[in-house]
Each structure stands twice: as structure tokens, then as C-alpha cells.
Design goal:
- It is built from 5 helices and 9 strands; from the N terminus they run E-H-E-E-E-H-E-E-E-E-E-H-H-H.
- About 35% of the residues lie in helices and about 20% in strands.
- Helix 1 (about 15-30) crosses helix 3 (about 115-135).
- The protein has a single domain, classed as Collagenase (Catalytic Domain).
- By secondary structure, it is of the alpha/beta class.
- The structure holds zinc ion (ZN) (2 copies).
- One zinc ion binds near residues 130, 134, 140 and 150.
């Protein structure tokens, strides 16, 4: 039985993990599990940027993954970067196993606005589906409402939906069929 592993990196509230567990199951129709794992955060921390190296965390996530896990998504409140970008909402291996999403810049207070829990949860879900979509081989989609539409700013996340367009959805399930899942 294959499943999607949801792995908190640092502290993530339990209700938020359960929300992701249920919502990702509804989207991908694959069992979802929550798993705890230890991370060496100091090795991926950049003190000059006060951020964490996304690819380094992704590597730790994949290296410690159980072989039965079909996909793994790390969820963190840490602020992520890769050297060519100021920040990242997330990162994924195209058609690979691992993905990571950061909630850090999805909270309204980050932009000086009052927190909106529902908006925050939806943003995190959209970015989680988006990054996992990459692991199912999807590239960015030009359909504005499609969850695979690329997001540079948080406003871009808000304008898209938490759903795949018909073409992207077909590709995800085609990928699963190809692997007999
Ligand atoms: Zn993307
Ligand atoms: Zn699409």
C-alpha cells in the first residue's frame, strides 16, 4: 500500500497537520500519514540570511524516508531559501519523491495584516498540492485558477484555487495509473 507521508519540520500545530492529511487525501486519492522525523537544522541554517536552505532540508527528508512512502511532503514554519532566490514557498523534485512547503510567508501578520486562519490554511494547502503536483510530474500551468499556476507572491496564491485544472488532474491520475497505484 503506497501512501503520502506528511512530515513536520520543527513545530507545526497538530490540527494543521490533520487538515493537510485529510485534504491531501481528498485531492490525490492516496492514503496520507503523518510521520515525525529528526532534522539537523543547524547544518542548513544560514545565519547571514536568517533562513534555512530548502534543498538541504529536502535531502534530509528523502534520505530518511521509508521506502514504502510514495511521496513525502515536509511542512515547516521555517523561512526557506535557495541561493538564487530570496525566499521560497516550497520546493519539489520533479517526478521525484520529495517536496517541502514553508508556512512562514503564508501568514497575514508576515505582511503586517491580522491573522486569518482559514486563509492561511488554504494557502498552505494550495502550496502543498502544488509542490506534490511537481512530484507527480506536473510542470507549471498557465490556467490562472489551476493550483499548478506558479506563485511568486502570496497574492498569486490567493488568486488560484486549491484544485488542478482538468488537464493537470488527468496527468496526476495518469501518472498513478502508470505506476499501478
Ligand atoms: Zn512550482
Ligand atoms: Zn493546470
Amino acid at each position: 500500500m503506497s501512501y503520502i507521508d506528511i512530515v513536520p519540520i520543527g513545530d507545526i500545530e497538530k490540527p494543521l497537520l490533520l487538515f493537510l492529511k485529510q485534504s491531501l487525501f481528498q485531492t490525490f486519492k492516496i492514503e496520507t500519514r503523518i510521520r515525525r522525523q529528526r532534522f539537523d537544522l543547524s547544518s542548513v541554517y544560514d545565519p547571514t540570511r536568517n533562513q534555512y536552505h530548502s534543498s538541504g532540508l529536502l535531502l534530509q527528508l528523502i534520505n530518511d524516508a521509508p521506502p514504502e512512502a510514495l511521496k513525502i511532503i515536509g511542512v515547516t514554519e521555517l523561512d526557506l531559501f535557495i541561493p538564487i532566490f530570496t525566499f521560497l514557498f516550497g520546493e519539489a523534485q520533479l517526478e521525484g519523491k520529495g517536496a517541502i512547503v514553508s508556512a512562514h510567508r503564508l501568514h497575514n501578520p508576515f505582511y503586517g495584516l491580522p491573522e486569518n486562519k482559514d486563509l492561511f490554511k488554504n494557502r498552505l494547502l494550495k502550496e502543498g498540492i502544488h509542490e506534490l503536483g511537481h512530484t507527480f510530474g506536473l510542470i507549471h500551468c498557465f490556467t490562472l485558477k489551476c493550483v499548478m499556476n506558479t506563485s511568486t507572491y502570496v497574492e498569486d496564491i490567493d488568486q488560484k484555487s486549491a484544485h488542478f485544472c482538468r488537464i493537470c488532474e488527468r496527468e496526476v491520475f495518469h501518472w498513478q495509473e502508470g505506476k499501478n497505484i
